């Protein structure tokens, strides 16, 4: 489902993701929950981990890969609570986390989704 959702995201985002590693995990790990101050691992649907493109430098390359995590159980829980279309939800989380890779704000990402007809 994540792969299908990825194929539908705006090309302006998708075309620049070759260096991102995409991971689907059941939950964020304990360190992520602690670092983000989460009350519950269900509080996080996705996460971008890396240095966004506005901060990258060829003179100081990051030794760690950029990673987008999708957290399966929190996404499913959110889906059950809201009744939102599951594929739409997965696509939204992907766009949001890839947007962080570009250094986009939440408002920028919402505008991008709205312009793409996914609101």
From TrEMBL:
Name this polypeptide is given: Metallopeptidase family protein
SUPFAM superfamilies: Metalloproteases ('zincins'), catalytic domain
One Pfam family matching this protein: Zincin_1
Residues in the signal sequence: none
């Amino acid at each position: 489902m994540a792969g299908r959702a990825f194929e539908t995201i705006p090309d302006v985002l998708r075309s620049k993701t070759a260096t991102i590693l995409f991971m689907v995990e059941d939950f964020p790990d304990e360190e992520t929950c602690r670092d983000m101050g989460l009350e519950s691992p269900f509080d996080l649907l996705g996460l971008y981990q890396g240095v966004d493109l506005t901060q990258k430098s060829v003179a100081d390359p990051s030794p760690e890969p950029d990673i987008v995590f999708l957290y399966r159980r929190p996404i499913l829980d959110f889906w059950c609570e809201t009744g939102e279309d599951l594929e739409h939800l997965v696509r939204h989380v992907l766009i949001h986390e890839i947007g962080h890779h570009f250094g986009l704000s939440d408002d920028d990402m919402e505008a991008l989704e709205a312009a793409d007809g996914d609101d």
